[in-house]
Amino acid sequence: MLKNILHTRPSFVLLLLSVTAVICIILFMTLGVKGQWDFALPLRAGKIAALILVAFCIGISAVVFQTISHNRILTPGIMGFDALYILIETLALFVFGLNISGHIATSGMFVLEVAVMTGFACLLFYSLFSGGVRSLHLILLAGIVFGLMFRSLSAFMIRIIDPNEFVILQDRLFASFNQVNTSLLVISIVTVALTSMIGWRLRHQYDVLSLGRDIAVNLGVPYKRTLMLTLVLISVFVSVSTALVGPVLFLGLLVSNLAYTLTGSDKHRYTLPAAVLLGVVFLVGGQTLLERVFELTTPLSVAIEFIGGLLFIYLVTRKGRV
Amino acid sequence: MLIHPGSNPLTSSYRLLLLPTIFLLALSLISISIGVGDFSFSHLWADNDDADVWQLLVISRLPRTLALILSGMTLAVAGLIMQMLVRNRFVEPSTAGTIESATLGILLVTLIAPDTPVFIKMLVAGAFSMMGTLVFMALLSRVPLRSPYLVPLIGLVLGGVVLACTTFVAYRFDLVQSLHAWTIGDFSGVLQGRYELLWIGLLLALLACFAADRFTVAGMGEAFTTNLGLNHRALTLFGLLVVSGISATVVITSGNIPFLGLIVPNIVSLLFGDNMRQSIPWVALLGGTFVLLCDIIGRLIYYPYEIPIGTVVGVIGSILFLTILFGRRNRA
Predict the structure, then answer these.
(1) Could you tell me if A155 lies within 8 Å of chain B, comparing CB atoms?
(2) What is the pTM of this model?
(3) Does the interface predicted TM-score (ipTM) exceed 0.85?
(4) Spatial distance between the Cα atoms of A7 and B238, rounded to a whole number of angstroms
């Protein structure tokens, strides 16, 4: 009897979330247009496509990252992944100057950066996933400090960069949810679609992976290969979302943990879509609330940082009790 | 550090202090002599009546160097005290929400009463940083099973939450740019008349020196302290007062210098152990030296422009922090 209810609950939750997400999207598209439809709709469509793409990237990468690290407090954002992206972007501009980063080369640059970042990420986090007994909190702390270091290094180079070049960089890095960089949208969608195929092919292995490394290896999952492919996937997703809206430290943590709690399930076929849908609700709904209801100019990321930070403190203090 | 069994360890280590003191003085001379304005020490005593050189020294160079040394010394001591009180090696004002709370305090008082004298602003900032630190300690007391790495983690995230509040307020009133200027440590604006609050920080640090032995005892834990007849709660409050005061003076003068209070005490502890009375002068001297060094790097690397010290320390400090983090683990 109880088993039966639990079995149907995730699908019910998914349905509910989808409906909420669709309502948020409709509200975002229609509220306060005042008749100028042909002007407002294309503008908002670009924005909403970017927001949904970001929700997709952050939701999937957070859940998958937590699966391969066997922990629910770790997310790419907390581990300094997006700070790393900003550092690489700054470094590229710093070393090569304007010639390479003009808008003709944007897509090429993007691919190159993602490649470099993946390499870095694999190096940096390989030790974390390749087993051995390690303190989770040590890894978390190291991740946050790495993030601080990356940010300081970027700030350091930004000081030295030519002001003209900096304007371009600022345009690409510190775009908030208010001004989503739609020029990157097409290449981002293509990249994410291609990368998602990796995730789709690996989808059956993630449920096994979440049982732990040893069990997964015993059950025949090619652990190392899956891990590397997944790191590639995460790096691409994080690069895309950072390129589009800038770093959001706690959104991944927020949506993944809510997804687990709401669906009450560990199965990726429930948690992944739930996390993405929650991301859409948070980003689109939050943006609608901020822009149309409260008429605030505050970036949504500030609000997410606040709520996500509180949730994080709650999670770790509760974890300590166990 | 090898200490011969016959000699008194205290006096021998005090004698060793001569070396870092000389080093600090040498760095101060370098710090005074670099900059865009034409300055050399020989001009001071040259026979021309060149009043400009003296003016440059008294109004700009000397205050800056003093401010650097004072901030470095006091922040390092504040870090040491916090580490004793929380009994965790990885805690300091910027990993416990203290600095962020002070910033919030400054922002609010600037908004509500812009004409408030700086001293009152500092008091408000101090009160806020005290509250923030108390919240941090209250959170810690709710975590019975303490992993040493969990403590700074909570502090860092708490700081992030407070910072989010601050950013929110700053956005509403178009003060984000000023906020950036406050939060990144920068001494380029320090002139005569704009750094003197730091002496209050020094005073607080000196007070802490007198209570050094008590803090060492407090570092052994509450039960142990009470057994020795000391009031643990009062001691903790006094320590927090000192730390909050120091944080407020530094933030209001120059902004945040991350990791300083963490790295210096850790290095000193590797050298001398955890006797606070013995290590406090070392911590202060090395703190001043570290800040001076980072500032000189920031001023020379892109001469005649400057890299703010907060950024330089952010890079060097996080690398050192990671080294300490992983180094400790390997030895354990």
Answers:
(1) yes
(2) 0.79
(3) no
(4) 56
